[in-house]
């Protein structure tokens, strides 16, 4: 992949060599469009270098539907672990045989009037079109409060966490209760480590309900086909993912049960001061809201079962197994024996190289199904780009095929006026 030499001009430039960029390359190749993929590190590197040892998928294997590369194992309702995911991706990389120039940073994308100019660490090219496939997960985000932690405490982001044994002895503070935070907290908890978990507004979801994986029910109901254009769905692109796990065949993650077993739960972190971490008194609210979503999803399934007359085990409602007696609003980290902090606080996108007016007030690209207002410029791989599956193995193929179809029509049209008409 790194033996490519640059040409002066391409029909399309793809920025990013993850599953989104590789999927775009797959369809660009099928369409006969001359293109190149620029990847700052290596193809699909995040799956290989930014996942912990016990990482596994939270959606069933059958939802792995990369272009012309569906899940090819013998456990469609299981959950691939890290090594299996990497092997699946390596087979996809080999199948696509994309023209990827690795270890190449894109430093500027600008419009020239006749097309695009793309500056990279390997040289500058021009292109008729550009696909931005860098996702929203470019840089690990650590709150500024991290700078106030005692120097004796090890700090690392989820992208750098590997296993409990890699951390120093002592208690661990996990900040953030999204999918990664809850799964890492569980990983540490199962290893016998004393864990403190800082909660937020992440919702939760049952793993199995009424005899089936909840994902199976939601697939039948059509939840994965709902688009961002449907009523009330626009705000979904900023939502936190539901927490659950595929570990050991899949199960719920119940933070209340963890609390019964000795995990310390806290409300949202406010700041760090004088060796103490300060929390909002909203732990009960966070747990209650997560359970409300959990029961709401199950109730949706109940209505579907009733409406279709499906025979299934009886319905149920989750009842809290533990409730905080009081809200702990601060903790002395040293006195609590906390020697490590794992920041499960997400990532920030890096669009600094895009010198084009495509972003809204939150820094999110303004687009419709990946098509931006700048003719010839596309985005791919974002959560809720079009559906719930966008950006995941489930929906990336449909999104990539759609934008490449649009791109192919654009590139084939050599009328200057075509480049002055908004594509949105």
From TrEMBL:
Classification via InterPro entries: Auxin_biosynth/cation_transpt, CHP04046_FMN-dependent, FAD/NAD-bd_sf
Species of origin: Ectorhizobium quercum
Protein name, entry field: MSMEG_0569 family flavin-dependent oxidoreductase
A Pfam entry, by short name: Pyr_redox_3
Keyword field contains Oxidoreductase: yes
GO MF term set: flavin adenine dinucleotide binding; monooxygenase activity
Record flagged with keyword Oxidoreductase: yes
Protein keywords: Oxidoreductase
PANTHER family attached to this UniProt entry: FLAVIN-BINDING MONOOXYGENASE-LIKE PROTEIN (AFU_ORTHOLOGUE AFUA_4G09220), FLAVIN-CONTAINING MONOOXYGENASE
């Amino acid at each position: 992949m790194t033996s490519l030499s640059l040409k002066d001009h391409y029909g399309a430039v793809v920025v990013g060599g993850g599953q989104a960029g590789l999927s775009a390359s797959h369809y660009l190749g099928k369409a006969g469009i001359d293109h190149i993929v620029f990847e700052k590190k290596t193809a699909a590197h995040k799956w290989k270098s930014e996942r912990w040892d016990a990482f596994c998928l939270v959606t069933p294997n059958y939802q792995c539907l990369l272009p012309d590369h569906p899940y090819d194992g013998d456990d469609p309702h299981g959950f691939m672990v890290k090594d299996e995911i990497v092997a699946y991706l390596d087979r996809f990389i080999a199948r696509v045989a994309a023209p990827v120039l690795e270890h190449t940073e894109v430093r500027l994308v600008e419009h020239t009037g006749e097309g695009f100019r793309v500056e990279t660490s390997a040289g500058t090219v021009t292109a008729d079109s550009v696909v931005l496939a860098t996702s929203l997960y470019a840089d690990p985000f650590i709150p500024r409060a991290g700078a106030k932690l005692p120097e004796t405490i090890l700090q690392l982001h989820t992208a750098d966490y590997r296993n409990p044994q890699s951390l120093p002895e002592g208690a661990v503070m996990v900040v953030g209760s999204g999918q990664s935070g809850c799964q890492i907290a569980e990983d540490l908890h199962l290893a016998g480590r004393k864990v403190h978990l800082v909660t937020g507004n992440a919702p939760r979801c049952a793993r199995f309900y009424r005899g089936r994986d909840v994902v199976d029910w939601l697939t039948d109901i059509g939840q994965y086909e709902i688009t961002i254009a449907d009523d009330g769905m626009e705000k979904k692109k900023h939502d936190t993912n539901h927490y659950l796990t595929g570990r050991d065949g899949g199960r719920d993650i119940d933070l209340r049960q963890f609390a019964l077993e000795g995990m310390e739960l806290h409300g949202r972190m406010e700041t760090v001061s004088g060796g103490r971490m300060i929390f909002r008194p909203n732990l009960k609210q966070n747990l209650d809201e997560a359970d409300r979503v959990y029961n709401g999803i199950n109730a949706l399934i109940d209505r579907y079962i009733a409406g279709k007359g499906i025979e299934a085990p009886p319905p149920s409602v989750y009842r809290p197994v533990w409730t905080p007696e009081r809200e702990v609003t601060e903790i002395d980290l040293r006195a609590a024996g906390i020697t490590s902090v794992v920041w499960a606080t997400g990532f920030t996108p890096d669009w600094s190289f895009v010198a084009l007016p495509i972003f809204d007030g939150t820094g999110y690209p303004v687009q419709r199904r990946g098509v931006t207002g700048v003719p010839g410029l596309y985005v791919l791989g974002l959560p809720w780009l079009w559906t719930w599956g966008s950006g995941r193995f489930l929906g990336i193929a449909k999104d990539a095929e759609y934008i490449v179809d649009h791109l192919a029509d654009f590139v084939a049209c050599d009328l200057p006026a075509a480049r002055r008409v908004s594509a949105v």
